[in-house]
Design goal:
This protein is 31% helix and 24% strand. By secondary structure, it is an alpha/beta fold. Strand 9 and strand 10 form a beta hairpin. Helix 4 packs across helix 5 and helix 7 runs parallel beside helix 8. The longest helix is centred in the last third of the chain and has 22 residues. The termini are close together.
Length: 325
């Protein structure tokens, strides 16, 4: 859908649209059976309780920006744009390639974007993509940006202790969307993002450790409490009832968590999209990777209302509602 004459003439857009999606993941993958050789778990337990069968893991000299650039290039191409049409890059990640420069800047360089557009990272763990999408949409609505590349990506394998039981949760990957201003009559995007820092040590990397650790009971309890509240909050703000939502495209923490969230909000689980069986939890990458798959399978049609939702360590969480057009 083309932008309206008003948007092209320089007036501020009323809304935003996702004009292209893309994703990328390492070729190397590990099955539950392979992980169980070194970690205290069983393949059957992982699949039954988490819904995970395998995960993609970087190898050799592969780095995060390899995959953010690949996903970004795919999204830009799908949007029918050239790389230099992008005027804002936000990468949501908790596993940046370096302390500096940002992964967003490294991604911009690998894409060959020669303009001086802003590029920066956001750290909000598994809810990072919802954070970045919400900020990107606001920057477009403010007139600062016209075409933003929003990427969620993590290489959790770099922070995983493969001898611990919680290693089975994580995988590596990147997903991207191109976000543009829109005055289409169907344009709707609304995001609400939150944080709660009362119990920051349930899900973290401690100063004296290199590996990611988490309290799985706390993750389940927190996720199943805050995600339904965030989803309902964003729907209430836009006066949208749940029966109008076509798909919930959430972060992929575990199938047990998603089933409980669906139960709490009253949504049939058939409307909850998942791909954790093949990717596991790629943190900030989960939602855009899943969105790209849903889009490429042509499961989204004009007018469909979708909800994105995620919760991450810290705690951070958020939800967004979007009408596909």
């Amino acid at each position: 859908m083309r932008q309206s004459d008003a948007t092209r003439s320089g007036q501020l857009p009323l809304g935003v649209r996702i004009s292209g999606t893309g994703s990328a993941a390492p070729l190397q993958s590990f099955t539950n059976e392979q992980l169980a050789e070194n970690a205290p778990t069983s393949p059957e337990w992982v699949e039954k309780n988490l819904g995970i069968k395998k995960r993609h893991v970087v190898s050799g000299d592969e780095v995060l920006s390899d995959f953010t650039a690949q996903a970004g290039a795919e999204a830009i191409k799908a949007a029918g744009l050239k790389n230099n049409d992008i005027d804002l890059i936000i990468v949501a990640t908790m596993t940046p390639e370096r302390m500096a420069p940002s992964t967003a800047c490294l991604t911009k360089h690998k894409l060959g974007i020669s303009n001086h557009c802003p590029a920066f990272d956001m750290a909000a763990a598994c809810s990072g993509f919802v954070y970045a999408l919400t900020v990107g949409a606001d920057l477009i609505k403010s007139g600062m940006s016209r075409r933003a590349l929003i990427i969620g990506a993590d290489v959790m394998s770099k922070m995983t202790d493969w001898s611990r039981r919680d290693c089975v949760f994580f995988g590596d990957g990147a997903g991207a969307v191109v976000l543009e201003g829109s005055d289409d009559e169907l344009a709707l995007f609304s995001g609400k993002i939150f944080s709660g820092t009362e119990n920051t040590d349930h899900f973290t990397v401690y100063p004296d450790q290199a590996a990611f650790t988490m309290n799985t009971r706390a993750v389940f309890d927190t996720a199943t409490e805050v995600l339904p509240l965030a989803i309902q909050a964003v729907l209430d703000r836009e006066n949208i009832t749940l029966d109008r939502v076509k798909w919930l495209i959430p972060h992929q923490p575990s199938v047990r968590i998603l089933r409980r969230v669906a139960e709490k909000i009253g949504m049939p689980f058939e409307q909850v999209k998942t791909n954790m069986d093949r990717y596991a939890n790629t943190s900030a990458g989960t939602i855009p990777i899943l969105l790209n798959e849903v889009n490429r399978r042509n499961e989204l049609t004009r007018g469909d209302i979708v909800v994105f939702a995620g919760v991450g360590s810290g705690w951070t969480w958020g939800a967004a509602v979007y009408r596909w057009h």
